[in-house]
Specification:
By secondary structure, the chain is an alpha/beta fold. Helices cover 57% and strands 13% of the residues. The protein has a five-stranded parallel sheet, with helices on both faces. Helix 3 (42-50) crosses helix 5, helix 4 (54-60) packs across helix 5 (62-82) and helix 7 crosses helix 8 (137-155). It starts with a helix and ends with a helix. The protein binds shikimate-3-phosphate. Residues 20, 24-25, 43, 54, 90-92, 130-132 line the site of shikimate-3-phosphate.
Length: 182
């Protein structure tokens, strides 16, 4: 019988990855509630640490945002590892190799919310807080889908297709899957 992640890690650190609009924050919050774990959202942590919006930080430069995002990720992973927690990351967190290494080191499960471009376009159409989608969300999302898919794929220990599923049913599916490897 194989050794499960939860036997390797004494705490439960569940990290959610996926493109913008895949539902990481909404699913993560719900999942944390249902599994009675703490919840960390790296975008929110960046905003509260800097007192600036993601958009304002991108005006200073993407590298400025990535550096704050890295600090938030490290903080979230360390805090979650001390207790147990769910960490919702920003879609671009996987573009920094050191972030990937830290997630691999701390996470007992990495869940990839795999959404197709149509869904992502629909889900991101309402907000203006995602500067990387300025000037054509569909084209940008198609590009990110192409470029990042393999990064999510190699990092994930669980892939969940979000197509046709509500936030509630995605959450339930993940909780069931994680429960079954405990
Ligand atoms: C980004 C995703 C965003 C946010 C920033 C950059 C990306 O987070 O971190 O706009 O590079 O994909 P969400 O995935 O939560 O929208």
């Amino acid at each position: 019988m194989g050794v499960s992640h939860d036997q390797v890690h004494s705490t439960r650190v569940v990290v959610l990855v996926g493109l913008m609009g895949s539902g990481k924050s909404s699913v993560g919050r719900r999942l944390a509630q249902s599994m009675r774990l703490d919840f960390y959202d790296t975008d929110e942590m960046v905003a509260s640490a800097t007192k600036k919006s993601v958009r304002e930080l991108f005006v200073e430069g993407e590298s400025v945002f990535r550096s704050h995002e890295r600090d938030a990720l490290v903080d979230a992973l360390e805090r979650a590892s001390k207790g147990s927690g769910v960490v919702a990351t920003g879609g671009g967190v996987v573009t920094v190799p050191q972030n990937v290494a830290d997630i691999q080191r701390h996470a007992s499960a990495v869940v990839w919310l795999d959404a197709d471009v149509e869904e992502l376009v629909a889900r991101t159409s309402s907000g203006t807080h995602r500067p990387l989608l300025d000037g054509g969300a569909r084209g940008k999302l198609e590009e990110m889908h192409r470029e990042r898919r393999s990064l999510y794929e190699s990092l994930a220990t669980l892939r969940v297709s979000t197509k046709g599923r509500s936030i509630a049913s995605i959450t339930e599916l993940i909780a069931t899957q994680l429960g079954s490897v405990a």
